[in-house]
Design a protein that fits this description.
Blueprint (H helix, E strand, L loop, with lengths): L1 H13 L12 E8 L8 E9 L2 E7 L10 E4 L4 E4 L1 E6 L14 H11 L5 E6 L4 H12 L7 E10 L15 E2 L2 H14 L3 E4 L2 E4 L2 E5 L2 H13 L4 E3 L4 H10 L3 E2 L11 H10 L2 E2 L13 H20 L3 E2 L14 H7 L5 H8 L1 H6 L16 E4 L13 E6 L2 E5 L2
Parallel strand pairs: 1-4, 1-5, 6-7, 7-8, 8-9, 8-10, 10-13, 13-14, 14-15, 15-16
Antiparallel strand pairs: 1-2, 2-3, 5-17, 11-12, 17-18, 18-19
Length: 404
């Protein structure tokens, strides 16, 4: 299977048509209230000028002159913020198969339903078939498909840890030794993946969880860190969380619903190591039918988010969309808001991921930054649910979604 994916990568590299970012038109957002960052004060009646994919000017109306050939979007009564990150998605649905040749309109339409209409300009795909996703990234970069910037993480599973929710016919990279983990991590990164995701715990249904040995996890982490790449992990229980800590994983891709809370020792080590958390709280409203069980799962995960945030940890927004088909982000915002302020939720979408993943020109609306912005119908600091009420999504100076 790895041989096939490597051939796909070689094909992409040798393609006669190089993937380039399509030239952006000049766009001006005028009249909205701007929050330049999650901790900034509101700037009413703002003007933002975007040229060639970058923010070229920011200021109050009357202070900024719009170029005569600009496309002006009236944002009166609306709120403007930096483009959103979703740090846990999957491009595994049927629509993404053969994405290199599938009709662009169909891909753009589903991208809108799943991501762009919710404001996402950058996403982390934490597991998909690269023979589909790498060509999809190329088509987005070339302007053929309207979508977000996609970062990819190659998956590694423990031996015998094929989760019950992944079809048995899907071949997975299972490893039994540190050497195998090292090889898979190197192969994934050589193929063009941007990071690694480890299943430090695999859910096996009514059978015991299969956990990854810390030495195996650390072998993959060492490869990724040597190349400056992040490592995510999916823990299923306390043992999986301990492996995350012992191996030096960067990001918990989920909270752990089977555990009521993190221990004081875990929290201390998270803080010392700079571990980040993607809570995916709304996911746990979909996994069981019994409402009493669902309430317990949600209470546990919300409590873990509370502990993690109060401990000073970096919180990153993510929904596991693509695995789940609940595209609407409203519930995730509401659950996060049980323990986080509106500004903290906004930070999880913008400044937090930009800082954590060292994207120096993202996460803020400032001159010289990437022209990734979201126009909202309402003020998210007045009602966190307004983060889901997107009027326009702009990535690299292109409008990739506009509300009808």
């Amino acid at each position: 299977m790895i041989g096939t994916w490597l051939r796909v990568m070689l094909f992409l590299i040798s393609s006669a048509v190089a993937a380039v970012t399509a030239q952006a038109e000049t766009i001006v957002l005028r009249g909205g209230t701007l929050y330049a960052s999650a901790d900034a004060q509101a700037l009413p009646d703002a003007v933002i000028v975007m040229t060639d994919g970058l923010i070229s000017a920011v200021g109050k109306s009357g202070d900024i002159q719009a170029p005569p050939d600009a496309r002006v979007i009236d944002c009166s009564g609306k709120t403007i913020v930096a483009g959103f990150w979703n740090s846990h998605v999957h491009f595994t649905q049927k629509v993404w198969r053969n994405a290199g040749a599938a009709p662009a309109a169909a891909l753009t339409q589903h991208m809108q339903e799943m991501l762009t209409r919710w404001g996402f300009t950058t996403v982390w795909d934490l597991g998909s078939d690269p023979s589909d996703t790498l060509p999809l990234c190329k088509r987005i970069a070339a302007g053929e498909v309207a979508g977000p910037n996609i970062l990819l993480a190659g998956n590694i599973f423990p031996k015998g840890g094929h989760p019950v929710y992944i079809p048995r016919e899907v071949q997975l990279p299972e490893v039994a030794t540190p050497e195998e983990a090292t090889k898979w991590a190197r192969d994934w990164l050589a193929m063009g993946e941007d990071g690694i995701k480890l299943f430090t715990g695999a859910f096996m249904g009514d059978k015991p969880v299969v956990n990854m040995d810390p030495a195996i996890a650390k072998a993959a982490v060492d490869v990724a860190h040597a190349q400056g790449r992040p490592v995510f992990a999916h823990p299923q229980d306390k043992v999986g969380v301990e492996t995350v800590i012992e191996s030096g994983v960067d990001v918990l891709a989920h909270t752990t619903p089977g555990e009521p809370s993190y221990t004081a020792d875990q929290l201390a080590r998270f803080k010392a190591q700079g571990t980040a958390l993607v809570p995916t709280l709304s996911l746990f409203t979909t996994v069981v039918l019994d409402p009493n069980v669902t309430n317990r799962l949600v209470a546990s995960t919300v409590n873990q988010l509370k502990q993690f945030s109060e401990n000073g940890g970096t919180v990153l927004f993510g929904t596991d969309v693509g695995f789940t088909t609940v595209y609407d982000t409203t519930q995730e915002f509401q659950l996060m808001h049980c323990v986080l302020s509106e500004r903290q939720v906004l930070a999880s979408l913008t400044t937090n991921p930009a800082r954590f993943f060292k994207a120096a020109k993202k996460g803020r609306v400032e001159q010289g930054f990437d022209a990734d912005l979201v126009v909202l119908d309402g003020d998210p600091l007045g009602d966190v649910g307004n983060l889901a009420k997107v009027s326009s999504t702009i990535r690299a100076g292109h409008v990739i979604y506009q509300k009808p």
